[in-house]
Please model this.
Amino acid sequence: MIKKYRMIYDENLCIGCQSCSIACRVENNVSDSFFRLQVRMETRGIFPSLSMQFSRHACVMCENAPCVSVCPTHASFQTKDGLTHIDERLCISCKYCIVACPYEARFINPHTKAVEKCTFCFENRVSKEILPACVSICPTEALSFGDLNDKNSTVSQKSHKNYFTFPKEHLRTFPKVTLIPHKKGIKS
Amino acid sequence: MMNVWGNMAQYEAIAWSWEIAVYLFLAGLSSGSTIIGLLVKWNRHERNTYSIWDAMIKSGAITAPVSIFLGLMLLIFDLGKPFSFYWLFLSYNFNSVMTLGVLFLLIYTPTVIVFMVLVFEQTFVKYRAYILIEWLIDYIKSFHHYSKIIEYFLFATALCIGAYTGFLLCAIYAIPMWNSPILPILFLTSGVSSGIAVNILIGLLFFKSTMSEESVKYLLVLDLRVILTEIPLIGILFIGMGYEGGDSLVALKDALSTGLWAFIFWFGVIGVGLLLPLLTVIIALKSHVYRVGYIWMNSIVVILGVIMLRYYIVYAGQIYTGQ
Model:
């Protein structure tokens, strides 16, 4: 059966510990000073009413992916399960997908010169029914991952209980990564 | 700067840099000079008494293949994997403007080369190597009954090349300044403007004997009209960004008011590239005297302006995304 993958990032549970980012580098051998994943933090408000805002930056696996439609050689392609991957052999590194990606998720691997990005750890983990590295390491369970078609999965259950937003929803890219937005806000 | 979450360099890097800006200029120039060469051929030829080929047609015939060739070289060497470019010809994605561009270029580039060989046949005949292409030229000449149709075809492909460079950027909805349907028209118009300027310059430099004042005057009037079209097109591009609101509006304000790129826009694109040529063309035409000095000056500022427009759109577009 076709999977309907979903990754949920709960901004309320994230503590900005960066373990997901480290786990990603180790699992995928990401080159030094390049990132498939970053969790950035920002302090908002005026003392003493401060709040910490975390934001996760990585490929969001668009249903309607601009990188796939602009790629001249089909090096960026979508699988039946709706995940976007890169065929390094076909990639000529024209960087059209890098400019087309609204999420700044792509970069050039300095060794292979091909374009690289988050794969949801598909080949090394998800295809073997193991959670992506970032999800499995998260100490606060801010990240959850699974199949929406499976009614018992964490993501299905979380989907029923929470209010979600999609990153840059107005672009109608229909990402597979959704956010549970920061609820605490700032007292003004 | 290092943050807790790591180096931001990869997010701040400009993916498409000067190679792309110069390529966009060269492709526009190639298409413009072909269009201008053909327009002179169709509209001015019977009035030219000097030779079979007016200097403007000769300049167009030489500028078009040379500039598209240089542009394509730049494009290939801008690739992260230059030697894998052949995949462009093996694996097509018809949703991608880049693939469509490859197809247009596959038709356009050989056609302009043939056009050049036909226009300069008398020159080529002198060389021994001509024997190698003689059969091809003779074969092509056997179609001379269809010359008008071939010229229309070349004109149409030149229009496609000029416009596709705009669509290439226009397809990117992540970048507000690029995601505008005005861009293809703007690039086509400014390409024609650079075509006029370069054709006149090449004519003055190499084909002075076949240069006709009438044709130059015709082109200067045309340039005046093209520039007067370009100014509102640039206005519409920004007005569109403003009405789009949100990120686009922020991008618009930043791009027109911050740093080096705002200066390049106001001083380079608007001042040097549009207002100065407007002034010189009006002076050159009004005085009714064929003043080479003015024409030189006019052509050079137009070319600089068109290059700066491409640089501005490519860089400011990527830098100011309104986020």
